[in-house]
Amino acid sequence: MARLFLISNRVAVPGAGGHPGGLEVALKATLRKHSCVWLGWSGEVHEKPRTRTITRGDNSYVIVDLTSEDFDEYYNGFANRVLWPIFHYRLDLAEFSRRDLSGYLRVNEHFADELAGMLEPDDIVWVHDYHLIPLAKALRARGLTNRIGFFLHIPLPPPEILTAMPNHERLIPSLCDYDLVGFQTHGDAANFARYLAKELGTPSHIPLRLGSGERAMRIGTFPVGIETREFTRLARRASKTSFARRVMASVPGTLMIGVDRLDYSKGITLRLEAYERFLAANPQWRGKITYLQITPKSRSTIKEYSEMEAAVNSAAGRINGAYSEANWAPVRYVNRPYSRAALSGLYAAARVGLVTPMRDGMNLVAKEYVAAQDPDDPGVLILSRFAGAADECREALLVNPYDPDAVAAAIARAMAMSWSERKARHSELYAALLRNDISKWGDKFLKALSPQDKKGPTALRDLLAPATGSAATGPTRPPATRQ
Ligand code: ADQ
Asked: CA-to-CA distance for 260 and 270, rounded, in angstroms?
């Protein structure tokens, strides 16, 4: 029987501890429904790397160690210092080195070797995220003809940014070795289509078929959702726990919440600045609002991250220094992760959810905040227009995170919003979450990946039209063929 192979940088082995990131949350339903083999890095660094298989129920977890060289070049280097900033539109933060690129390609080859030894011809392979862009190419080079899909959890910038990445031509076209390439939003998919048209001369007036022989690469949009009803139930239970009650009892007035990994893409420093401006412009709310920012540290060994940590600490300290009273501090900045249950209770207790990334593939915190609200007395979501979630969450207060005055005004508006407006907005938002529940996400992707699926946005022209405003123009050379 065909098996489903999930491949990602890290593997979340159940019971092994750690807090789930966006990818683990997204894959949970797929792991429950299918018998899967999940392969990726163990999180360990050894000079003699091992590969181990752990079985849990119907699923196996194949975890591969990295050498310290791999860790420096593939993970800390190319993935985190080149692809992550550039894909989040931050060319200024990218630090390219040829050595890191070769480490990145080497780890992809290593994963391909491990996989090639395990795959049967009818197994399906689903590769996740920016760490593993060239994996299909490495598998095809080993003669594998399996159906292979790729999903990018983070944004894909337009070709004007992407082409500034040194050696982009070695990397981005290798996505054409997948059978299906999925993105979070139509905008990301359109950026990829524009890259193909611009760089590979793929014509936009014919249905998109890249590759040769039996295979043709297709592009699709598969926005990641959450387990909406389950999260709502979790929040309902969590609000009654002594933890949530103790937190609320300690907060004078209204709670506003932000929950993010400590990452420059999440916009935490500008968000704090916006809050500072809100306090300056709205003295009537001083003493009556507490902003709880929960931010576990991530990637602390990288310079940009440790600098950001210091900047956030200093902004929180500055605001508290300027506005605190003996019985009130405007900011509570917490540097540790919480369980999903504890988080859901805090979301439920917060009148305002402040989610203002500078750029984000989707942002599940925004969706979790909406799901956690009491429909009879819901809070207000303030959401960056540059989060993928903004495409679906049209009834949030959408803001430009680069404009702290506008974000400050949105906080004031959220604080003063009438019960009927809050209720109306929440009911639309909740309906949008249900329409795109995560229980359907994996199935939609896998259906599109199956050879029988004939539907889907296969015409490059369809993808290009909204981005360029012109459906008919585009290069007319024949599609690029691969070796
Ligand atoms: P992430 O960048 O990890 O994911 P996000 O979508 O916000 O970002 O998901 C974070 C997950 O981690 C949420 O489920 C959240 O509850 C949890 N989390 C965050 N802070 C936490 C804390 N303090 N304690 C415990 N849990 C915490 C990547 C992309 C996103 C994309 C996802 C899924 O960067 O854009 O939405 O993948 O595709």
From this structure: 14
The type of residue at 474 is G
Q: Which of 88, 153, 188, 462 is catalytic?
A: 153
Q: Residue 180 in 3-state DSSP? A: strand
Query: Do 122 and 158 contact (CB within 8 A), yes or no?
Result: no
The CA-atom distances, in angstroms, between 154 and each of 22, 76, 89, 128, 136 are 10, 17, 11, 10, 19
Residues of the chain short of pLDDT 50, as ranges, are 205-208, 210-213, 456-457, 466-483
Task: Tell me how far apart the alpha carbons of residues 301 and 314 are, in angstroms, rounded to a whole number.
Answer: 19
Q: State the distance from the centre of ligand 1 to the C-alpha of 299, rounded, in angstroms.
A: 14
Q: How far is the CA of 120 from the centre of ligand 1 (A)?
A: 33
Best CA proximity match to 429, nearest among 385, 355, 348, 370: 370
**What is the position in ligand 1's atom list of the atom closest to the CA of 366?**
7
Establish whether residue 268 lines the binding site of ligand 1, counting it when its CB lies within 6 angstroms of any ligand atom: no
User: What distance in Å separates the CA atoms of residue 222 and residue 189, rounded to the nearest whole number?
Assistant: 10
- pTM for this predicted structure: 0.91
* Strand duo 59-66 + 51-56: pairing: antiparallel
pLDDT, tens only, 1-33 = 689 999 999 999 988 776 667 788 788 889 988
**153 belongs to the catalytic site:** yes
Residue with CA closest to ligand 1 atom 7:
363
The per-residue pLDDT for range 94-144, each reduced to its tens digit, is 999 999 999 999 999 999 999 999 999 999 999 999 999 999 999 999 999
Q: Which atom of ligand 1 is nearest to the CA of 153?
A: 38
Q: How many CA atoms lie within 13 A of 211 on its CB side?
A: 20
d(CA 189, CA 181): 9
Per-residue b/e over 43-70, b at no fewer than 16 CB within 10 Å?
A: eebeeeeeeeebeeeebbbbbbbbbeeb
- In contact, 294 and 368? CB cutoff 8 Å: no
Residue 110 a catalytic site member = no
Q: What is the C-alpha end-to-end distance of the chain, expressed in Å? A: 31
Residue pair 226/368 in contact by the 8 Å Cβ criterion: yes
Cα 90 from chain centroid (whole Å): 16
